[in-house]
Amino acid sequence: MEKIRRNERMSAMMRHLSAHPNRIFTLNSFCEMFGSAKSTMSEDIDLLRETAEMFSLGSIETVTGAAGGVRYRPVVSPEAARKIISELCAELSGSERVLPGGFLYYSDILSMPDTVNRMGEILATVYYDREPDFVLTMETKGIPVAFATANALGVPLVIARHSSKVYEGSAVNINYVSGSGSIETMSLSRRAVKENQKALIVDDFLKGGGTARGMVELMREFNVSVIGTAFVMATAEPEKKRISGARALMTLKIREGEPAEAVVTPADWL
Fold first, then answer.
1. Count: domains in the chain
2. Is the overall model pTM greater than 0.90, yes or no?
3. CA-CA distances (angstroms) from residue 236 to 8, 239, 254?
4. CATH at 168
């Protein structure tokens, strides 16, 4: 095999790590990949770590122990997160996007891969230390940001549905009270999750918290603990939701008038 130069090796290593966020790769796997000694790979990793920190590209960490190695996490700094969300808030504020019932049109935002990926990385940064086993969302609008969050965390995405599908096998169905007060059904395949796992709930919109509360109750049926609930946007009213401890990237207020105006601001925790 032709000798690989350091810049080639480091470029390939960074691409490999960033393509698999939060996944631990042993030093031996890179030694075999590049035909290099452990001491050489350790030096390369130190250089990559310094470069990632210098240009705010995320975090490259060395994990000790028998199952240790190196992993990449697309961490977003508080300053960068607030700047990203502030720009989104400016784009979403105004009267053009206001919908009847106190809602806001932003499906176009949730269709932009780069924007959704950044939102997912911001949410993942908050929950790395809680080590969820999967991300749970409710079909359908929350799927893009939930997928981006799951990708950044390096865990599977699980989607609850309004009705069970025959191709998913037997399912658990529960009834829950939606934000509008109506009784609706939520379904999840029995094979989707395992007992004693940890779930992170991610969805697009939080108003009354009925759907989110339903997902928490659904996880209780599977004996799964919920380590957090996160949303793209939450309404300022009602102030008291049906769940507590939820994190949203943005807060929505609707100013009544002709026309009504949306005021979207970054969440306080940012």
1. 2
2. yes
3. 50, 6, 9
4. 3.40.50.2020
Domain-terminating residue out of 73, 95, 122:
73
State the residue range of the domain holding 61. 6-73
pLDDT reported for residue 169? 87
Residues 56 and 117 reside in one and the same domain: no
Instruction: Report residue 2's pLDDT band, with 50, 70 and 90 as the boundaries.
Output: low
Question: Where among 28, 47, 73 does a domain terminate?
Answer: 73
- Residue 131 above 60 pLDDT? yes
Bridging pattern class, strands 134-138 and 261-266: unpaired
1 inside domain: no
Q: What is the CATH number of the domain that holds 64?
A: 1.10.10.10
Shortest CA distance to 110 belongs to which of 90, 140, 136, 80?
140
User: Are residue 115 and residue 14 in the same domain, yes or no?
Assistant: no
Tell me how many degrees the CA angle 84-129-63 measures, rounded to the nearest 5. 110
Q: Which amino acid is it at 207? A: K
DSSP sequence for 72-117: EE----HHHHHHHHHHHHHHH-BSTTEETTTEE--TTGGG-HHHHH
Helices marked H in the chain: 6-18, 27-34, 38-54, 78-92, 113-127, 143-153, 210-221
- Domain identity same for 57 and 165: no
| Residue 219 falls inside a structural domain | yes
Q: Tokens representing 254?
A: 């609707």
Does 67 have pLDDT greater than 80? no
Q: Does 49 have pLDDT greater than 90? A: yes
> How many CA atoms does the CB half-sphere of 188 hold within 13 Å?
25
Q: Please tell me the distance from the alpha carbon of residue 28 to that of residue 34, in angstroms, as a whole number.
A: 10
pLDDT at 1 over 60: no
Hey, what's the torsion of the CAs at 30, 31, 32, 37, to 10 degrees? 170
Residue 179 pLDDT more than 80? Answer: no
